[in-house]
Amino acid sequence: MTEFRVGQGYDIHRLVAGRPLLLGGVEIESEVGLLGHSDGDAVLHALTDAVLGAGGHGDIGEHFPDTDPRFEGASSDRFLAEALGLIVADGFEIVNADVTVIAERPRLGPVKMDIRQKVAALLEVPVDRVAVKARTKEGLGAVGRGEAIETFAVVLISRNGK
């Protein structure tokens, strides 16, 4: 019998000048980037939380606390790789991932496929198992004012029982 589990993740980061904008491991042309202890990649942070949650392994803050100097400036693909390693060690694999990025700027339509392809590679799944959607907040709140980017992620994992 196959066991399925769902995990959901969320992240939000403030936009600031002087930082690169990384989303899903893709550097996006922008005058501002995401502030964070690591590289601030809100897509990979939300995905990491979703993978950890699906596997019953806590959350990103437990594994990679922003108080730990080892993670200062770290590439967030490292976090996702370690989370993936935990579920694989438990016999699980990624079935699919669904990501929603909420940002007023920059417009993400032109880079959604790049993000999708990079996330698929990081999760070690075919690209048709990854969805990346972009939305705005219609000018509402901090995200709507262009002060932050918010991301939601859901993953489905499975393992075959004996």
Helix content: 25-40%
Order of helices and strands: EEEEHHHEHEHE
Distance between the termini: 7 Å
The description of the largest β-sheet is: 5 strands, mixed
Structural class: alpha+beta
The fraction of residues in strands falls at 25-35%
Total separate domains: 1
The CATH topology assignment is 60s Ribosomal Protein L30, Chain: A
Rg (C-alpha, Å):
15 Å
Low-confidence regions: none
How many DSSP-defined strands? 7
- The largest beta-sheet arranges its strands as 4-1-7-5-6
Principal-axes shape call: globular
CATH class: Alpha Beta
CATH architecture: 2-Layer Sandwich
Specify the number of helices: 5
Structure description:
By secondary structure, this protein is an alpha+beta fold. Helices cover 29% and strands 33% of the residues. The strands form 2 sheets. The protein has a 5-stranded mixed sheet with strand order 4-1-7-5-6. The chain has a two-stranded antiparallel sheet with strand order 2-3. The termini are close together. The model has no long low-confidence stretch (mean pLDDT 96).
